[in-house]
Structures are given as structure tokens and as C-alpha cells.
Specification:
The protein is mainly beta. It has 1 helix and 4 strands; from the N terminus they run E-E-E-E-H. A hairpin with a 4-residue loop joins strand 2 and strand 3. This is Mevalonate kinase.
């Protein structure tokens, strides 16, 4: 179980040309933007976990016990996603 706040970010990008062509070995033109997306994942002492996307004002809280019941087999690992 996540025991502390996890904060991650990723830079923005724009693909100006060739987004799908690269899978066929062609050239693409992509540039990074001076923008970032942030994600904060935080456990709560009441058995819940919270997700916060501050850039777009999204906050969501889930019950961990219910998340454990989700089928995560598409991830290629065990069915349960939390230990």
C-alpha cells in the first residue's frame, strides 16, 4: 500500500507532423512545451486513496477495498492491484 504522497509530473508535447508515421519507420517532428501536467496520489488513513490533478482541478477519492476487486489482468500481472 502506498504509504506517502506520490507527486509526479510530465512535460507537454506537440507532434507537428508524422505522429502515426513513426510506426512505419518514417520521421516525425515533435516539440516539448513549457507546460507540465502534475499528478498527486495520496493515501488516507480511512482506507481510501485520493487522486489530484491540480492543473485541471480534478480531485477523486476511492475506497481501496473496492479498487482491489478490479480486474487488472490486462496489465499482465496479478488480478489484485494493491498489496
Amino acid at each position: 500500500m502506498l504509504s506517502e504522497v506520490l507527486l509526479v509530473s510530465a512535460p507537454g508535447k506537440v507532434i507537428l507532423h508524422g505522429e502515426h508515421a513513426v510506426v512505419h519507420g518514417k520521421v516525425a517532428l515533435a516539440v516539448a512545451l513549457n507546460l507540465r501536467t502534475f499528478l498527486q496520489l495520496e493515501p488516507h488513513s480511512n482506507g481510501k486513496v485520493g487522486l489530484h490533478l491540480p492543473n485541471i482541478g480534478v480531485k477523486q477519492v476511492w475506497d481501496v477495498a473496492r479498487l482491489q476487486l478490479l480486474d487488472a489482468s490486462f496489465l499482465g500481472g496479478p488480478r489484485r492491484i494493491w498489496n
